[in-house]
Write a structure and sequence with these properties.
Layout: H1 7-14, H2 31-36, H3 45-67, E1 71-74, H4 79-87, H5 95-98, E2 114-120, H6 122-131, H7 135-145, E3 150-153, E4 160-165, E5 171-174, E6 180-184
Parallel strand pairs: 3-5
Antiparallel strand pairs: 1-2, 2-4, 3-4, 5-6
């Protein structure tokens, strides 16, 4: 598929189904793009679709099935939009560090594919906001159940980046206390299943 050059072509891209519950259009919204009037359109749609399918089928669908509807806060960013967000100080890392991350349609420095989405799980956000639930409970649940590459947690709504990558890093980092890395390169079970007692069983 060529990069869309018309509304009709962009609509066709948006109709591409990435998994049972998700379409490409779900991942193209960007506040930065809207505010600055710049389109957020993949340069290489085929690669964006390929990695988007992996992100959705392996990570987002199981979360959606297990916890109920998940909300997508930020997902695909074109190189132009990501660079603009970095330049304007909108919490976007450099393009080079976001290839195979938020920039789905570019390989990273090692020639690998990947994709990232920032999501909120309302089921957990309510417990985090109103009951003081520990973000680490969700982090360990994901670590023990899903083939993620990286997780990064944020204070507002316990939103977090979740990444699929063909060479998984298995790293968890947080801006919520306790800040910093929780796990790095750990492939086995966490040993902290007691923290997520009461969580639903994994569904697919």
């Amino acid at each position: 598929m060529r990069a869309p050059k018309s509304v009709n072509a962009l609509e066709e891209l948006g109709r591409v189904r990435l998994s049972r519950s998700f379409f490409m259009r779900d991942f193209l919204y960007s506040e930065i793009a809207n505010f600055y009037g710049e389109p957020n359109i993949p340069e290489s749609p085929d690669l964006a679709i390929e990695v988007g399918k992996q992100l959705c089928t392996q990570l987002l669908e199981p979360l959606n099935a297990t916890f109920g509807r998940i909300a997508i806060r930020s997902a695909y960013r074109s190189p132009t939009i990501n660079a603009l967000g970095n330049e304007k100080g909108h919490s976007c890392a450099s393009n080079a560090s976001n290839y195979a991350g938020h920039i789905w349609d570019h390989l990273d420095e090692n020639g690998c594919k990947g994709a990232t989405a920032c999501i909120v799980i309302p089921w957990f956000a309510d417990r985090y906001t109103h009951q003081g639930a520990d973000w680490r409970a969700l982090a360990y649940w994901i670590h023990d159940h899903l083939p993620y590459s990286a997780l990064q947690f944020f204070p507002k709504l316990a939103a977090f980046n979740i990444s699929w990558h063909e060479r998984p890093k298995r790293a968890i980092h947080s801006y919520i206390e306790p800040k910093g890395y929780l796990l790095r390169g750990e492939t086995g079970k966490s040993g902290f299943a007691d923290l997520y007692t009461g969580f639903p069983e994994l569904r697919d």
